[in-house]
Amino acid sequence: MLKKVAIVEDDRGLREQLGQILRAAPDVRFVGACASAEEALERIPALQPDVVLMDIKLPGMSGIDCVVHLKRALPSLQVLMLTVYEDSERIFRALKAGADGYLLKSSPPELLLEAIDDVRRGGAPMSSHIARKVVRHFHLVGPSPEESQNLSPREQEVLRLLSAGYIYKEISDQLGIGIETVRTYVKNICEKMHVRNRVEAVAKHGGKAA
Question: Among the CATH numbers 3.40.50.2300, 3.20.20.140, 3.90.650.10, 2.102.10.10, which is that of 3-120?
Fold first, then answer.
């Protein structure tokens, strides 16, 4: 089944380059490109993509804020953040905001298409740097009274191995589980982090989760 993909990137050259890669991919349908977060919020709900490649640093509204608004409007949308280098603080904030993974802009085309495929299959591309930040995040916020928001022992194991630099295949071998199962655990970790982040934000501001 074709994966519908849109791009949000302010650099025209890169936007066109990414568009060419997506148009040439046999299992991808490129549905459109936006040059800013504001344009994305206007056009993406009508384009109905499955995956958005989102520049983390945009003029005007940031890519991170754009993710928050898009996820609110389209909860099933999957967003891969595009970054120039591994700015772990920004990437971590994007994941907390609801992004499903990230990719370096310098990644070769095959890695880009692999990441889109990974995210559609329930994965969440995450490096060891980011995994360590996720470990610290859960440690700092402490256990939730809502058991479903806490990491299961198996999710904790997967996160520990990710933060030690293991890739999905190695985690799969180490724990004796399938790669698809590892993908599911990583996706669950990201979702729980997103939920806990919203709960924290509400507690801090005394408002309601949007």
Answer: 3.40.50.2300
Strands 51-55 and 78-83, by their bridges, are: parallel
User: Is the separation of the CB atoms in 128 and 161 below 8 Å?
Assistant: no
Amino acid at 163: S
Query: What would the pLDDT profile of 141-188 be if each residue is shown by its tens digit?
Result: 888 888 888 999 999 999 999 999 898 899 999 999 999 899 889 988
Distance of CA 65 to the CA centre of its chain: 13
- Residue 210: is its pLDDT beyond 50? no
Q: Who's near 90: CB < 8 A, 6+ residues apart?
A: 56, 57, 64, 83
Domain 128-205, architecture per CATH: Orthogonal Bundle (1.10)
61-70, 90-99, 149-158, range with the lowest pLDDT = 90-99
Q: Tell me which residue of 169, 67, 173, 43 sits closest to 118, measured CA to CA.
A: 169
Q: Are 48 and 31 in contact (CB under 8 A)?
A: yes
Please calculate the CA angle 186-206-93 and round it to the nearest 5 degrees: 30
